[in-house]
Every structure is written in structure tokens, then in C-alpha cells.
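Objective 1b: paired records.
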Amino acid sequence: MREKLREICDTWNTALQENVPLSEHTTFRIGGNADFWVEIGNPALLAALVKLCRAEGIPYFVLGKGSNILASDAGFRGVILHLGNDLADVREDGDSLTLGAGLPLVKAAKIAESKGLSGMEGLSGIPGTVGGALYMNAGAYGYEMSQIVTGCEYLDESGELRQLSAEHLALSYRHSRFTEFPGIILSVTVKLTPGDKAEITEKMQDFLKRRNDKQPLNYPSAGSTFKRPVGNYASALIDQCGLKGYTVGGAQVSEKHAGFVINRGDATCADVLRLCADVRRIVQEQTGYVLELEPILLGGQTGDESACN
């Protein structure tokens, strides 16, 4: 595996890194080592690596900023394909922006603000990439990617470049086509609305203040830990059950916002999953609601504690 990966990386003058700590590349600050790690500099390198991995049966995972990831304590036995600054270009066409998948959503919102374009204000504090935001149809404060996306470019499971328009992306609450079918998002095109720059800035600052006031941003986390159940809110249900501050090992239900499970400094993946299992059980017993985890488990199956050991 190593030599074949290295051969492709050498062709593109890219380093093949080994034993990279996932805890240093996820906002939860949790996770063991990935066997291999490649910084993706262009779509051609990505396509070559995907084709190799599929042909050789090498596990691979595409990672952005790691903001919606819970990584296994055992790490990842395969190759991480990291989309970052090298896939973060921006192309402008009137009121539309085509944003590289590796571009942080925060920067994308600031670019829209600088151009006096409205539609991304509520997304401006989400700590992920544009690609990740489309993947899960990220949203906050009444804003969602589905409201502004007109299409995307992606690599299919064979490593071929494809395009999809918005109507074929199957966007719904924390869901897109890519959560069910193979494909690696390369760029996202959004259509925004001309607006008053001062008003756009004011909205963004208001949303950021709300985040700072209500969310435990001083602790590592993966953001909202549970998806919103139909007819209620996960944080309200957890609070109702008296679970604020509930702790397992280094993991804790935030005392500031019950919808966040935080890493108090030494939490393991196993701690987080055991805590989440307890929360789900208690909430279901007391309210009848079944909570669903929002973060993606890297290195195992969601809900399987053994995957993190």
C-alpha cells in the first residue's frame, strides 16, 4: 500500500505523511493516528488516489476542517485525503460565487460580505469547509446551504469529474445526496442577493455574538451533537431530563448549552459514545424522543463503542 501511494504522491510532488494524529485535525481534539495522510493540491491528484484506493481496496476518507467528526481512539487504518487551502479558490460571476470545497465557510461568508452579497450571514460562524457544509446541508439561524446552492462539481466513485445541479442534490435537514451515495465535492456554486454591506455586516456580527453568548466555544466539540428531532429540539429535551453537566470520563454535556457534548481536556472517543448512549437512553425513557447523533464517526460505526477502543 505504502509504495503505491508514495508513487502517486511523488508524481505530484506531494508528501505522503504517516501516523498523523487525528486529534490534531478535528475540532473535538479526539482520535488516534491515521496510517497515511495526503494534502490534496489539485483534483487530478485526488482522482488518481481515489482510483488507486478503489482498485486496491485501500480505505480512504475525505476530510476538511474536521468540525463534524468524532475520530476513533484506534485511529484510521487507511489514507486521509485532506482538502484544504489548495482547493479553496473563488470564482465570481455576477451574484454567483463558485467556492472551492476546501474553503472555510467562515472565509466564504466574509468574501460574500466584502462584495455586498447577502445569503450567508447565518452560516458565517460554522467552523467547517464549504464542501462539508454542502455534504450535510449545514445551517443555523434560519439559513441553510439549500437556500443558496445552485450546483456543484464532484468526483464520482470512479474518480471522474461530474456536475450536479441543486435539484439533484437531495438537500434536506442535515442531508444531501453525498451522505448516501459516493462522491467527493470539489466546488460549490451559490447564488446570493445584492444587499447593503453595512446591514450584512451587522447581521453577521449579531449571529456571531449569539454563538459566543450561548455556545461553549471555549471547549473542543463537534458542534451540535444530536440532530433536531421532528417536533422538538435536542437541547431542550436533554435539558428537560436534567442532563446538563452529565459527565463520562473527559466528556460532558455542556452546562452552557445542552445540545453540545464537549471535551473537557482528556476525553476519548469511547467517553463521548458512552455519554451519548446514556443521553439517548434517558431522553427516550423520559420523553419518548429518539435522538440521532450528528457527527460522523471516523474509524468505526456510529453508535458502536467498540469502534473507538
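Objective 1b, second protein:
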Amino acid sequence: MNLELDIARRIARAPLGGSRSVMERIAVASVALSVAVMLLSIAIITGFKREISRRISDFSSHVVVTDPRSLGSLDAEPLRIDRALDSLAACDPAFRRAARYALRGGIVRTAEAVEGVLLKGVDAAYDLAPFEGWLVEGALPRIGDTIRAKEVLLPRELARRLALAAGDRFELLYAEADARLRRDRFKVAGIYASGMDELDRTTLLTDLRNVQRLAGWAPDEVSGCEIRLDRLEAAPAFAEGLDRRLFYDESERFDRLAAMCVQALYPNIFDWLKAHDVNAAVILTIMLVVAFFNLSAALLTVVLERIRMIGLLRALGMTRRSLRRIFRYRAAIIALRGLAWGNAAGLALCLVQRHFGLVRLDAEGYLLSVVPIALEAGWWLLLNAGFAAAIFLLMLLPASAVASVKPDETMRYE
């Protein structure tokens, strides 16, 4: 039988017909609030980083092979990329698939507005699964069919400005090589919303052959190649290895090509995401300090409330070590209650936000329109274990206050 634990459990019970002390309830509430805030902070920051990284990589792939001089250009010179590139890329086990793309700038004109757009043509190897999940109206355009379809997938924000819906037709103006303006007509197959308005607000997705025809390119001429991997974290090492193989290839077909990972294409966004780790560390530290001070105050109050009991136990021969252990157990019981309430509140708020998306964001400032939530058993268990261990170590100091209690004085204490 653990005598110290049994005594701690007995004094933790509320008096018959009464309630626990105010300081004890404040300590439990403080621990619960700290745990709930830490849980919410990690869930939001983890979800924020993961969701933005995933959507960026879904939108522009993990690795892009193109002429670096053509980045940001709407009318770059075409490249001839054959299937030999796939053989170089497939040397890495992280490789999953490669798809050619072509870019062309243009102007969409409707009765309601005129907007500049980026027409992106892709082939049948392109992964349309993310766009299928982002589809809000209509259907995906037919890509890679035997008969070329003049259909596009339109971003929702652009469709709103142009007053277009699925099934509507619009006029696209584009410049020829001699600077003359030409026009063509396309049909809106569907409307999508990736949730990242800053990236997709002007990008129209269509069949690769439509862009090649507008630009006057041959069937084997494209703007570049997008490569998807089995995971985002492998992109920097994969791009570096592929770039090295392209550089040292003896043929001249890869002279203009370079491989760039998505982290290098959007460095500001990924650096911004890394800065959130500092924010998480600051929040966790502040919440831990708040919980420690409130728990310390509650424990000292418990010591004062039980000072006659302490003197009696000392007079009966209990050692100071056993007394300290009693109040460490007492602090652990308070902390566990706070952990239970904090986890219940934090997990409930996370689940409500994840399923209903009640808290919204300004997409222009945060790239996402809804606060994302990521819950994983790994970091949740680590958070609880780390918090409990930190509180236990910090409680060694206030629990040692019982060592200074003298039996002859406490027996007369009132």
C-alpha cells in the first residue's frame, strides 16, 4: 500500500456537503486552460503548415523542370522535353509521375468584365485529383481525349468577377508573335476553388493541345514538366539530384533545363511557415509558466490548509521525504484533473472547427479561407506527456515547502 498516495487522495476529496477550495479550482481551471490553448495552438499551426504545403504542391506539383529564364513569363520560348526526362527522374525512388504543361497569357472578355488570365494546358498524365476535390460547380474539362475539347476549368473568384457559370462560353484574346491580337472561344466545363485565392485567382486549366495551338507550337513543344513525388519532404533532395543529372547529361537536349522544388519556387511562403514554429514555442512556454504559477499557488494554499495535519504526521514519525511525496501526489492529482478538462475542451473545439469551419480567415493575408486543424495521436500524446513531466519537475520546489514545517509549532497552529 502506498501510504503517501492514499493520504493525497483522501485530502483531494471534497468535504462532505462542501466544495473544494477556491485556489484548487483556480489551479485546475488554469491547467485546463493552458492545455486547451496549447492543444489548439499545435493543431492549428500544424494544420496550417500542412494544408498550405499540400495545396501549393497540389497546385504546382513537387518539382518543376523548365528553363529558369522562363519563370514568371507568360510568353516564354517553348522547350522540347521527351520521355528521356522520365528515365532520369525515375532513378529516384520518390518519383511517382511526370506531366508536361504549357503556359500562355491572355485576356478574357465578357459582357460584365475584362480580366487577364493564365491559360495552363496539361496532358493526360497530369494529376487532376486535387482539382476534383476543389470542384464547386460543373465537371473537370476533358483532357487527353482523342478529340480535342475546348473546355477550361475556371477559378471561382475569376468566375464571379466575369459573371460566368459552368456551361457558359467566353472569348479569349491573345497576342500572336507579330503582336497582333487574335481571339478564340472556350466553354467553362467547371469552376474550382482551392482555398488559396492568391495562387488560383487567374489560372485556367485546359488541354495541353489548346495552349500549343494558341501559341503556334509543335506537339512536342511545352513550357516544362511537373513531377509529383510520394511526399513533399523529398522534393528538395529530389530536385537537387535531378538537376545534377540534367547538368552532367552528355546530350544537348537538357541544356536549358533545370529542376526546382516547390520550396524554391515559393520561398517566401515556406519561410513564413517555418516562422510559425517560433510562435508555437512562445505560446507553449507562456501557457506552461501560467499553469506552473497557478499550480504552485494552489499547492502552497493546500500546505497552509493542512498545516496541522503536517505537524501531526511529523510528530507521528513521518519523514520530510514522505511529506513532500504526499504533496507532490496532491499536485499531480490537480494537474491530472486540469489535463482531463483541458483535453476535453481542446479536442471538442478542434473537432467542431474541423467539421464545421466556424472560424474563417482572410485569404489575402493567410492564403486559406478557413482555419485548418490537424489532429494526430503522436503529438497529442507527446504534448500531454511533456506537460505532465514539466509540471512534475517544476512542482519539486513548492512541494519542498513542507520540509520547513516544525511539529512543535504546527500542533498549536490555528
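The mean pLDDT is 83. The radius of gyration is 32 Å.
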